[in-house]
Write a structure and sequence with these properties.
The chain has helices spanning 33-36, 44-66, 85-102, 111-117, 162-172, 180-188, 204-207, 217-229, 235-261, 276-288, 306-318, and strands spanning 2-7, 12-19, 23-31, 75-81, 106-110, 130-135, 140-147, 150-157, 212-214, 265-269, 292-294. It is an alpha/beta fold. Strands 9-8-7-6-10-11 form a six-stranded mixed β-sheet, sandwiched between helices. Strands 3-2-1-4-5 form a five-stranded mixed β-sheet, sandwiched between helices.
């Protein structure tokens, strides 16, 4: 079964062709980072225009590389939520156009779920139920997933997502945008002294909560105060302690989610998982707590991409879910299809 995946939710234009939900035939991504870098954030109008300019050339490239034609597609999977409405509309219109000409079924989906389906392109078997840990620029959440097509929120962010916190802290330190890679690089250079005290205190409010909840706004403020009080402190030290405190919160919430649900199989995804320090910490955390932990090995699979959309589309389509022209896009996540 051959599927085309279309992803245009935010600042990556990406198309991919996948066979049977697990074999990648072609993947193309146009990153808009350079377009948004001067603004240190995503500008919706720039994003949607870039999608419009790049989507057709990328379609030609994936078809050429896979040696397939549009008539060979069994389904077209496209991100319908969540995301920037204008950007989502560009991908949706391409899917509708292919359907109008070839009658190809459309599988409009929530790309948050797709971050977990992409693991099957790396050989992870679709065994359920699982906990889905999603950490990106716009999302920090843990979901209970009984099967593809349904997910239940176990814990969500109360303010900033982790990726957003990375960007803001990078701004405070005059590091490049986006903030994830430069902060990880700076943190890796820092060697703490034996028994060195935390420069950023643990998030006590979350320690006292019984529920699963992410909150990084206070940590960002604490970094700002730290820089103001200790202006001679190296950026390497600040980055190291910021990561350490942020990742401790992730582990704490994950442990709490496992305790609440009893599920010990975890799939992780999202752009922040490109951080090797975080992946290593979570792998050690899983080993220590006798958990199964899976995260993308290829960094390209951590960010938004068409391959993950095509992979999830395969499982949804097999279960009988598809649309024609009558679907809408939405900035709000869709948690249940089937």
């Amino acid at each position: 079964m051959i599927g085309l995946g279309i992803e245009t939710s935010c600042d990556e234009t990406s198309l991919a062709i996948v066979k049977d939900g697990k074999e990648l035939l072609s993947l193309k991504i146009f990153s808009q980072i350079d377009l948004h870098k001067p603004f240190r954030g995503i500008v919706p109008e720039i994003a949607s225009r870039a999608h419009l300019e790049k989507i057709n050339p990328l379609l030609s490239e994936v078809l050429e590389e896979s040696k397939l034609g549009l008539s060979d597609l069994d389904y077209v999977a496209v991100t319908r939520s969540p995301g920037l409405t204008g950007s989502l509309m560009i991908g949706a219109q391409l899917a509708r156009s292919i359907h109008a000409v070839y009658g190809t079924p459309i599988v409009p989906l929530c790309h948050l779920q797709a971050h977990f389906a992409v693991l099957h392109l790396e050989g992870v078997e679709p065994v359920f139920p699982v906990l889905g840990l999603l950490l990106s620029g716009g999302n920090s959440a843990i979901y209970k997933i009984p099967h593809f097509g349904k997910m239940e929120v176990v814990g969500d962010t109360m303010d900033d997502a982790l990726g957003e916190a990375f960007d803001k802290v990078a701004g405070l330190l005059s590091l490049p945008y986006p903030g994830g890679p430069p902060i990880e690089k700076e943190a890796s250079k820092y060697v703490p002294e034996p028994k060195e005290k935390d420069l950023l205190p643990p998030l006590l409010r979350n320690l006292e909560q019984d529920r699963v909840a992410f909150s990084f706004s206070g940590l960002k403020t604490a970094v700002s105060h730290l820089i103001a009080k200790q202006p001679d402190l190296s950026s390497q030290a600040v980055c190291y302690h910021f990561q350490k405190t942020a990742f401790e919160l992730v582990e704490r919430n994950l442990k709490r989610a496992v305790s609440i649900t009893g599920i010990k199989r975890i799939m992780a995804g999202g752009g922040v998982l490109a951080n090797s320090t975080l992946r290593n910490r979570l792998s050690k955390f899983a080993d220590k707590n006798s958990l199964e932990f899976f995260s993308p090995q290829k960094k390209i699979y951590c960010t938004d991409n068409g391959a993950m959309v095509a992979a999830l589309g395969y499982y949804l389509f097999k279960q009988g879910y598809s649309k024609s022209l009558d679907f809408t896009v939405s900035p709000v996540r869709q948690e249940t299809y089937i």
